[in-house]
Task: structure prediction
Amino acid sequence: MNLNATLFAQFVVFFILALFTMKFVWPPLMKVLDERAEKIANGLAAADRGKAEMAAAEKRAQAELASARDEGQKRINDAEKRAQAIIEDAKKTASDEAARIIAAAKADAEQQVIQAREALRAQVAALAVSGAEQILKREVNATAHADLLNQLKTEL
Result:
């Protein structure tokens, strides 16, 4: 065999193989590689969107937490104000009740003083009658001299 013919035959077979590969093997292989590259690009884009959504969700969560904190603090402040108002109301009620009790006690004491004075006047009148009886050495009739005794009571 001739070396030139062998080289020529190998060149023709290589050229046919190259054409066959370019026509039938290369396009599906490139299609698979392009699809794979597209999937990778879509995956990277989805990852970027996920990161962006995650950052947005984190910001929303932080805003919600801040809002909840503010709302909680507002409720605590309102509760403290309400507690102060209740305490002030209770103090006022207690003060009014104390004033009422003191006034009732003063009125009761005044009534007892009046009763004690009346009892003391009656006792003084009885002592005066007894003393007059002792002085006169005779019995003084209390019913007969009631007007005189009443006048004596009022003078005392």
Observations:
- The chain is about 90% helix and 0% strand.
- The chain has a mean pLDDT of 87.
- The radius of gyration is 60 Å.
- Residues 3-155 form one domain.
